[in-house]
Amino acid sequence: KVAIKGIERELICPACKELFTHPLILPCQHNVCHKCVKEILFAFEDSFADGGSESSNQSSPRIRISASSMDRIDRINRSGMKRNSLTPRSTLFPCPGCQRDIDLGERGINGLFRNFTLETIVERYRQAARAAIAIMCDFCKPPPQESTKSCMDCSASYCNECFKVHHPWGTVKAQHEYVGPTTNFRPKILMCPEHEMERVNMYCEICRRPVCHLCKLGGGHANHRVTTMSTAYKTLKEKLSKDIEYLISKESQVKAHITQLDLLLKETECNSERAKQEASQSFEKLYHVLEEKKSAALRAIETSKNIRLEKLQTQVEEYQGLLENNGLVGYAQEVLKETDPSCFVQTAKQLHVRIQKATESLKSFRPAAETTFEDFVVDTAKQEDILGNLSFHSNGLEIPEINEEQSKMYNKALISWECPGKTDSADIYVLEYHKLNREEESVTWQKTEVCGKSKVLSDLDEDSSYAFRVRGYKGSICSPWSQEVILRTPPAPVFSFLFDDKCGYNNEHLQLNPRRTSVESQAGFPLLLGSERLQVGCYTTLDYIIGDTGIAKGKHFWAFHVEAYSYLVKVGVVPSNKIQKLFHNTHDVTSPRYEQDSGHDSGSEDAFFDSSQPCTLVTLGMKKFFIPATPAAPKDPASRVLPLPSCLGICLDCDRGRVGFYDAGRMKCLYECEVDCSGIMYPAFALMGGAAVHLEEAVTAKYREYHDDI
């Protein structure tokens, strides 16, 4: 038999680190105290109101939510999930045992079973630990007597006298079940938490939990594989018994592993001390180099100071000599007293030269030495950056690479990266970015830690270029920085809309998806019928569709994808006062004579076409982007044809009356023109033949992070 005192580790709640009190079984099969589950859920709720701050933890001294749990709470909070939703929704619980977010279902804590078996074992452990402490009677007048038995039906403990009083012979209570003194009262029948009036009589093999017949008939376990409770009891007991017997038979092997682990513990201690010494020696070398550089710099400054002071002091003495009755002037005054001409000339010649030099220096005064020490300023910016990135480098840790195709700059920035190899992946990544600004001399990187391989950023300025880099960390070891990638944000705030399925929408030629984010035209039988009725030329009307939201003022940007197989697509904007004309435009045809990008004739037809159009559109199709034929456009038609970008964008500036068409992948303007913004402006699209347009999906906080976690 295993000693009861040897299993204490299995009886500790992972949340409060104390013995279990009314433990509940989570769907992940871990146990947590009932009180701890409620406190964690309260902290979980508070995190949505407080933005996931750790201050919500401080209200309960009992509970200790780890930093990783708080990180998961923050991540779920950022994903946009709201706790006050009116629609039924599952409750997420950060399990402190497995560090995963567990779905508790719509009933939440009310759908969890109480682990009575574990509760009984904890009670036996408590009794073994406090054998000398008696359980007192719950009904004695003070002072209470020591209890001799406990009633499982009444959930109370009694001394002999009180038990006789409350359980008299010949009454129903006399038939109650009683046991020795205990504080662990468990129900005789385990009831279903979802159907409180039904007892559990089956076991769900999918969810690994007891269920009642109502759960199987129409509840959440209707399509699950279940077995009878007796069969599950027998099967699980046999498996558990066999596994226990196997472990007991391998006791010698377990002891050998324990011995080996003890050696590994000692070896880890020794290796860590050795690593500390090596790290200390490395830093000591850096200290030595810095001290030498510091001493050399201070010596150079001191030497320069002495030389400058000496020059300035000499200059001071020279100028003091120019004062009356002092120095050179005093000496000259004495020479002037000489009356012998020959002696005077002999002395005065050299003296006159010195007086002239003093006079010239007085006219153009200039200090003999500079007082500033600008040449001795030590530039340590690069060294500080290098020292700031100083860490343990590992050749086995892969250098991450930013994936520009999966990265996206739209309403928010989505930065994705990947590792070339699959082995030795990092535990956490650090993403750094900064705005490219030519005016700033020094670069200040902004830093954020990421658990997955993507990050959504929402604090970037519009119409700006940013540099991004990422590195991986595994414990204290980090990889080198990835190659920097430069991405540009949209030129204006992102404008969100859907395709309008009411105003002028031709459902015979166009097909919208249920979300109204994609439109497709089919080059099928209706198009052939329309062409068959025309006897002259090849004139076919375009099918138009507009956005369901308009723009009255400001600057806005939206992006979309045009399928590569598209034959003809026109995109642009239309004012509200010309929408009626747009859907009934007799000149809106496609032919060699009326296509503004065809290059035919002298341009008179282009002028007619532009003046007749109710909206501003550019032509796309056959994997090409056609720049409209305008006076400012190149004369050669071939130079007005560009490859079709994978993602196109339109920037409308109502205040300036201009619209620009962009390569949204590089945020490069391909064509810009003036537009009349006197009315409310709507995004406009026209399709003919086989073509499809998909609106760009907005980036949300859970765009890729949550998928990486899954």
Please characterize this protein's 3D structure.
The structure is a single chain. The strands form eight sheets. A seven-stranded antiparallel sheet has the order 22-23-34-25-30-31-32, with no helix packed on it. Strands 12, 16, 17, 19, 20 and 21 form a six-stranded mixed sheet that branches. α8 (327-335) packs antiparallel against α9 (341-363). β14 and β15 (413-418) form a beta hairpin. It folds into five domains: 1-45 and 89-131, Zinc/RING finger domain, C3HC4 (zinc finger) (Herpes Virus-1, 2-Layer Sandwich), CATH 3.30.40; 138-188, no CATH class; 231-362, no CATH class; 413-488, Sandwich (Immunoglobulin-like), CATH 2.60.40.10; 510-531 and 540-586 and 613-705, Jelly Rolls. Mean pLDDT is 79; it is low at 51-62, 75-88, 534-539, 586-612 and 705-710. It is an alpha+beta fold and 710 residues long. The longest helix is centred in the middle third of the chain and has 70 residues, at 251-320.
Write a compact overview of the structure shown.
This protein is of the alpha+beta class.
